[in-house]
Amino acid sequence: MDEVAGEKLRGKHPVEDVLYNRLMDAIVDKYLRPGQHLNEVKLAEKYDVPRSRVRRVLERLRDEDVVVFELHRGAFISRPTVAEAKNVFQVRRHLEELVVSLACARATSKDIAILRDNYLREREAFEALRPNVNRIAAEFHFLIAKIARNEILEQLVGTFIRRCVLVQSVYEKKSGILCLSEEHREMIDAIAAKDSGAAIRMMQHHFDHIVASLELTKERRLEKDVYDFLTE
């Protein structure tokens, strides 16, 4: 997908949707970090769009708890508290258990092929240390939600994936990139076999692994506060 800076928004897609998607890609790829300032004027200039459109995109992100507005300071990428982080992962865990169960019942051979292609791309990106590996890994969960054939669940999964990325940006331990591709492969095998019990257990293990990679403490959150993410 396109990067967040420098290119003017043209083409058939609605400008606000394109800008929204590019900002979300930058958050998932961790180019935009919690606490970073989003300057409306600069975004409008870089993308050659009215500032009012940028504001609507930022308000949409605010409604998803991805952006916060501070009085007289503007919009910033959210920095979740410890309590928020725990709540987000708790809800997403149970949400995706339901999603993967439905996927086991509804997946077609074409769906499985798409999941396996995603796994190969994720593995390749991880081994090459490409910056888009997080986005490909997140796409795996989007794909399962699509296979579940439930638009409401699909929307919820997308929202919680983005919030989890913010949590990981703040609280992840300093131990390098977390490799989850083999767990994804095992989930694909369970979905292909229509074994919902195995798929749910793998999803539970998957989230245990992710949460174990986090340091959910107030000290860790304050440690991140010392960084100056301002773009101005």
TrEMBL record:
Q: Where is the HTH gntR-type domain?
A: 13-80
The top of its lineage is: Bacteria, Pseudomonadati, Pseudomonadota, Alphaproteobacteria, Hyphomicrobiales
Q: Which domain of life is it from?
A: Bacteria
Q: Pfam families under this entry?
A: FCD, GntR
Q: Which SMART domains match?
A: FCD, HTH_GNTR
Print the keywords alphabetically: DNA-binding, Transcription, Transcription regulation
Residues annotated as transmembrane: none
Presence of the UniProt keyword Cytoplasm in the record: no
Q: Which InterPro entries match?
A: GntR_C (IPR011711), TF_FadR/GntR_C (IPR008920), Tscrpt_reg_HTH_GntR (IPR000524), WH-like_DNA-bd_sf (IPR036388), WH_DNA-bd_sf (IPR036390)
GO molecular function list: DNA binding; DNA-binding transcription factor activity
Name assigned to this protein: DNA-binding transcriptional regulator, GntR family
